[in-house]
């Protein structure tokens, strides 16, 4: 089970509601905050606590001790000013990890400048993910770890890779990626692959590297 931490979600629209539901399902403690009494009443029974508050009211957020939460999600929708102010206040009150939803690239830039630790654009990010997976069918899933580094799970479908050791395939020098996990077609997981481990037909490998190199690898292993 995941480590139990405290979460506050400010703005319970479609995105914020989904965050709350996912956190509750993971057994986490969630404070849901919204300016709408109707929305708060709807969530009162499903989260640890749900309160009516103005995200731009510093005194209200201080009274809720926002700075003490391990993670604060600012998921306010169209009200860009409220989103920016809530982010600024949360950081000034000492919140260590503030994750914000942005409406567009300019909004994202401002959120980063006022202290957001992470900024997401759900529709934009989903579109990029869908297109990437369509263009790279052998990549089952991926996570962007930084601007430079991506972790991806890749299906090995090219017979040239079958029944060869990691040492023979030499992923690091030939493809500029590191293999960190191998999963067999029977879902047996090798979490510490060694140089003499053999890639079997249709194994899935988890690799770490630059996105451009993972794309090149996808073209080869497909």
From TrEMBL:
Residues 4-120 form the RCK N-terminal domain. It holds the Pfam family TrkA_N. Residues 137-222 form the RCK C-terminal domain. GO terms for biological process: potassium ion transport. One of its GO terms (molecular function) is monoatomic cation transmembrane transporter activity. This is TrkA family potassium uptake protein. It comes from Limosilactobacillus agrestis.
